[in-house]
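With this grant's support, we have settled on a layout for protein records. An illustrative entry appears below exactly as we store it:
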Amino acid sequence: MGKHNLLLPFLFGLTSVLMGCEERGRPVAERAPSPSPALNKSMSDSDLEKAVRAKLENDAQLKEADVSVHADAERNEITLSGTVRSRAAREKAVELAKSAKPGVSVNDKIDVKPAG
């Protein structure tokens, strides 16, 4: 009976080692997916600019406005400049820019020049 008491832990250990080797030798497609590096990576400047421009272009009031977008993704900042026809349009542009990425700060350098 004494020999069997030592055999059980030995077999358990051997099984654990072999299971670890099996995981290492398995093709990558069969392994559990690892977290995507893209999820940890922040947006690039151009991605952030495109996101803001898309929001501005989808708004009827701002579609025709002359608003430039400059993004600094590393600093989590967007700078809006140019001209709009009303304060409401200016406020809407800032609001849409802030909604492009959570926590982004917006530098508002937009001038208001009514048509006329």
